[in-house]
Amino acid sequence: MRWLRFESGGRARIGYERGAQVQPVVAESLQEIIAGRGTADAGAPVPRGDVTVLAPLRPGKILCVGLNYMDHCREQKIEPPDRPTLFAKFPTSVTAPGAPIRWPADFSSQVDYEAELAVVIGREAKRVPEAEALSYVFGYTAANDVSARDVQFADGQWVRAKSLDTFCPLGSELVQVDDPQNLKLITRVNGEVMQDSNTSEMIFGVAELISFCSQSFTLEAGDVILTGTPWGCGEFMEPKRSLSHGDVVECEIEGIGVLRNPVISWQDAHGEPAPPRVAW
Ligand code: MG
Fold first, then answer.
1. Does 176 share its domain with 217?
2. Residue 268 pLDDT more than 80?
3. Confidence band (pLDDT; 50, 70, 90) for 275?
4. How remote is the CA of residue 58 from the centroid of ligand 1, in Å?
5. Which residues are in the CB-under-5-Å shell of ion ligand 1?
6. Could you please report the per-residue DSSP string of 48-99?
7. Domain count, the chain
8. Ligand 1 centroid distance, CA of 82 (Å)
9. Per-residue pLDDT at 9 exceeds 90
10. pLDDT the model gives residue 8
């Protein structure tokens, strides 16, 4: 099943892909689907092209892993870490596929993309062994761990640079996959390929990450783990590259889909008002 959250008739609905259509279901949130409720069809299917896709869910926690791809270590000429480096993004950073990534121009001049495989937890996990960890996954989707590099490195702690409203595009579809460790992952900016890798390059795989996180705190249904980004971020290019007002970023994961977001560097010169909060 490929689950979606979308807007139809002025309200958010849940459905699943049925060919080129979306079949609405009874549930009003993906958390209900994750809990096994509300899966019955509700009304007629609608053409996929006629719906506005929303972020699939508002996570309870968004856990992130820094430096989790071998190719990302190689490009920086550093040794791979011996355990996962965890950090967090706030749930208010989540934004929808197609919605703009926005930031005030006076906040950062070095905003970067990070395409990542996002894992959505399906049931409570506390101190689970790695061998059982994948049974705690509900599904996978694409994420962009948008990062203000100048703020990230000046602060030391990363949460401010990575938690601006709109700095966590998520979606579109929430998908079950058999093997999360063999998926192509590509980022394009304005059609130009910037990241081109495979989840087989992960240092700590999905099962190990879930087990590792769950040793420290409880993972709950609807929590999301961003599993790290491969080589090719603008920060590590020579010369460095950053996202600019008017760019379009695409994060594509094989078998899951394309997460596409335009970029607005919000400043008075563009006549843009302060970006609205995501409504849930
Ligand atoms: Mg990241």
1. yes
2. no
3. low
4. 18
5. 114, 145, 229
6. GGGSEEE-S---S-EEEEES-BHHHHHHHT-PPPSS-EEEEE-GGGEE-TTS
7. 2
8. 17
9. no
10. 86
Same domain, 83 and 40: no
The pTM assigned to this predicted structure is 0.95
Number of Cα atoms under 13 Å in the Cβ half of residue 222: 15
Q: Which domain holds residue 204?
A: 62-262
Residue 38 Cα to ligand 1 midpoint, Å, equals 33
Please tell me whether the peptide bond between 239 and the residue prior to it is cis, using omega within 30 degrees of 0. Answer: yes
pLDDT at 203: 98
Q: From ligand 1's centre to the CA of 114, what distance in Å?
A: 6
Confidence of residue 265 (pLDDT cuts 50, 70, 90): confident
Domain presence at residue 271: no
Distance 34 CA to ligand 1 centre (A): 25
DSSP state letter for 106: T
Over range 55-69, report the average pLDDT: 96
Query: What's the average model confidence in pLDDT over 185-213?
Result: 98
Q: Are residues 124 and 195 in the same domain?
A: yes
- Residue 133 is encoded by which pair of tokens? 């960890």
User: Is 273 within a domain?
Assistant: no
Ligand 1 geometric centre to CA of 122 (Å): 22
Q: What percent of the chain has pLDDT over 70?
A: 95
- 277, part of any domain: no
Rounded distance from Cα 183 to ligand 1 centre (Å): 17
Structure tokens at 253: 């994961």
Q: Which pairs with CB-CB distance under 8 Å and at least 24 residues apart come from 189-192?
A: 189/113, 189/243, 189/247, 189/248, 189/249, 189/250, 190/247, 190/248
Compute the distance between CA of residue 266 and CA of residue 74 in angstroms, rounded to an integer: 34
Task: Clarify whether residues 197 and 93 are in a common domain.
Answer: yes
Co-location of 95 and 233 in the same domain: yes
